[in-house]
TrEMBL record:
Family to which the UniProt record says this protein belongs: Belongs to the short-chain dehydrogenases/reductases (SDR) family.
Transmembrane segments: none
A Gene Ontology molecular function term of the record: 3-hydroxybutyrate dehydrogenase activity
Protein name: 3-hydroxybutyrate dehydrogenase
Entry annotated with the keyword Signal: no
EC number: 1.1.1.30
Domain of life assignment: Bacteria
UniProt keyword terms in alphabetical order: Oxidoreductase
């Protein structure tokens, strides 16, 4: 595959950084986009120190003007591959869920990806090439209590991908959604503590009785698995895969 410029939101840590490192090792240039400027620059510096091609950019994916200005800021590195990864979590019963926090989750994980697609699609169309990968979740397919905003946003990503796929059908552009079960990241570590508090159980019980219980394989999904799946989706072998939901769930949805 040709060398591409890859724009990854939430790229400074966790899943985003893991995918970025894998793609950079394959020769691509990765643009680590994050709302945390220092974290983004530190993450990019850690890759360039290894001889990899990486840069950093600050963006608030919920700010339409900030997102719209990205192509001008990246004029020398037009985006070929967009990975919508930025995300946050809040665990609470709906009746106790702060309205502003509910809206924030939707804005970051659903409105943000829509704005980024809107911004980068014209360039992809003009070059007749683009790959868009949404980092969804098992919660794009099923629900868990106390996560109403997260589940709603992740479900919405699937509809967004299907719609965009139809709108770009004449171009060599694909959009797909990766849906992993729990991945051991700082975001999930925080969820473990929050779930323990909300359910009145230990953190060990959260892992065994809530997170891994629905999975026949009883194992967290690794970032390496997601990175390899991303590699496949941007490869020529997947050029006719679009509007698809790739589920890495250890058998969760087989039940």
């Amino acid at each position: 595959m040709k060398t591409c410029n890859v724009f990854i939101t939430g790229g400074a840590s966790g899943i985003g950084f893991g995918i970025a490192e894998e793609l950079a090792q394959s020769g691509h240039h990765v643009i680590l986009a994050d709302i945390n400027e220092q974290a983004a620059h530190d993450a990019a510096a850690s890759l360039t120190a290894k001889g990899l091609s990486a840069s950093a950019i600050v963006v608030d994916v919920t700010n339409a003007q900030s997102v719209a200005e990205l192509p001008a800021a990246l004029v020398d590195t037009p985006v070929d591959i967009l990975i919508n990864n930025a995300g946050i979590q809040h665990v609470s019963k709906l009746e106790d869920f702060p309205a502003q926090k509910w809206q924030q989750l939707i804005n970051i994980m659903l409105v943000g990806p829509a704005l980024l697609c809107q911004t980068f699609l014209p360039g992809m169309k003009s070059r007749n090439f683009g790959r868009i990968i949404n980092i969804g979740s098992i919660h794009s397919l099923v629900a868990s209590p106390y996560k109403s905003a997260y589940v709603a946003a992740k479900h919405g990503l699937l509809g967004l991908a299907k719609t965009i796929a139809l709108e770009v059908e004449q171009a060599d552009i694909t959009i797909n959604t990766l849906c992993p079960a729990y991945v051991k990241t700082p975001l999930v570590e925080q969820q473990i503590a929050n779930q323990a508090k909300e359910n009145g159980i230990s953190e060990e019980q959260v892992i065994s009785d809530i997170m891994l219980k629905p999975m026949p394989k009883k194992a967290f999904i690794t970032i390496a698995e997601l990175a390899a799946s991303t590699q496949f989706l941007i490869s020529p072998a997947a050029r006719n895969m679009t509007a698809q939901t790739l589920v890495l769930d250890g058998g969760w949805t087989a039940r």
